[in-house]
Amino acid sequence: MSAIPHSEFELCVGAVRDGFERARRWRADNCRACGAPAAPRAARSTRRLELTGRKNVHNLPKALLLILVLAAGGCGVSSNIKRGESLGLDHESAVLFLGVTPAYRVHLLRGDVVNGVWERPTVDTPEVNIIAESGYIFVKVNPTTEAKRLGVSLVFPEGRMFGPCQDSIAPVFTLNPGTISYVGDLQYTFSGAQLRYDYTVDEDKARAFLKANYPNSEVSMTTIPMTPMKVKSTVCNPRTITIPIYMPGPRR
Fold it and tell me: Judging by beta carbons within 10 Å of its beta carbon (0-12, 13-18, 19+), is residue 75 exposed, middle or buried?
């Protein structure tokens, strides 16, 4: 199968390593597992944050630290289907089969598609929050529709955070019900401070992965190449907002 290259797509960068680490530690100390009730809070305060970005590297604004509090350890599918496990596919499920190199953590969100534009949700609560295993993401999720598709919302190389800003291009995926939807392979590279990606389709390599790890599943594989789609997003806009910060009260 010939490769289908699509290079020079750029992702906006948020070099916020220190802030990310603070957010991760705050979440570990103060938050519970997804869906668990929050611990009682005794006090509430607010703080105004001035949010700006340096245009030359398209920094994601500091407001995304709030998003990271939700997402750093976050919800979402966090590992591939176990080897040898039955897929149990039906008309209400699909398997996303995506190659990713290097092995960076990625977040996938489901966003509306309006007039050919993928609308990235503001709050990054990922449906898939994963690092590729043996070069691939292989997870069971709900199928997509023409009006609502999965897309790459954030990539985390080397402790930094990158994501698509307004009018940038993001890979968006279509997943058919009852099938393993092979959407191609993403290869991330740095160009200076910018993160870019290429994508290819290699069906022979994908089938070899399935035969080695999920025997006989290759018959359910359908190739649906990803769509590079313009993004509508507000998370990179510089602005001033008020964020409520809940302070833990004394233990009783």
Answer: middle
Q: Give which of 239, 233, 241, 237 is closest to 121, Cα–Cα.
A: 233
In total, the chain counts a number of residues equal to 252
- Given the DSSP bridges, would you call strands 227-232 and 194-200 parallel, antiparallel or unpaired? unpaired
CA dihedral 235, 161, 76, 39 (to 10 degrees): -80
CA distance 242 to 180: 43
Residue 130 near residue 81, CB atoms below 8 Å: no
Tokens of 102: 């290097």
Output the CA torsion sign for 72, 75, 76, 82.
positive
Is residue 155 a contact partner of residue 162, using CB atoms and an 8 Å limit?
A: yes
Structure tokens at 244: 């409520």
Rounded Cα distance between 126 and 66, Å, is: 14
Q: Using CB atoms within 10 A of its CB, is residue 121 exposed (0-12), middle (13-18) or buried (19+)?
A: middle
Closest CA to 121 of 169, 157, 184, 163: 163
pLDDT digit string, tens, across residues 218-231: 999 999 999 999 99
pLDDT at 43 over 60: no
**b or e along 151-176 (b: 16 or more beta carbons within 10 Å of the residue's beta carbon)?**
bbbbbbbeebbbbbbeebbbbbbbbe
Q: Residue 49 has what pLDDT?
A: 24
